[in-house]
Design a protein that fits this description.
By secondary structure, the protein is of the alpha/beta class. Helices cover 29% and strands 21% of the residues. The protein is built from 3 helices and 7 strands. The strands form 2 sheets. A 5-stranded mixed sheet has the order 2-1-3-5-4, with helices on one face. It has a two-stranded antiparallel ribbon with strand order 6-7. α1 packs parallel to α3.
């Protein structure tokens, strides 16, 4: 993925999420991964799946069409479980991202959305990027 401070990879986000909050969370998750590359001297673009450069390998985050076409249904993942799956040169990094199922009536005790892909990215960076 990285050689002499350069990388051909791009970070791909799903074109659409269930909520704006989940979109923001995945954008920040991609930024975390992008920062890990920058710490190693590489500049890596973050783009929506529909804007992907098909000639370059990709780190596919979350519930992308690519993941679904490769038989990964992230809605079947429980709790904070996640998947790291290589498909050719592309790598799927995904967890089950979904809004909170409970309404929040108390501002001091919010019910947070679950962003399993964030855990998947952190563990990926820890394991494979140092």
């Amino acid at each position: 993925m990285l050689d002499a401070g350069k990388s051909d990879y791009q970070i791909i986000l799903p074109d659409k999420q269930e909520t704006g909050a989940l979109t923001d969370c995945l954008n920040q998750t991609a930024r975390l991964l992008q920062t890990a590359f920058q710490a190693n001297g590489a500049v890596v673009a973050v783009v929506a799946e529909s804007q992907r450069d098909a000639s370059k390998p990709a780190l596919m985050l979350g519930k992308t069409q690519f993941a679904q076409k490769n038989a990964l249904d992230v809605t079947k993942l429980r709790d904070w479980t996640f998947v790291h799956r290589a498909v050719g040169r592309d790598i799927i990094i995904a967890g089950h991202d979904h809004p909170s199922k409970a309404p929040t009536d108390n501002a001091r005790r919010p019910n947070w959305d679950r962003v399993g892909t964030a855990k998947a990215v952190v563990d990926f960076a820890k394991q494979f990027m140092g």
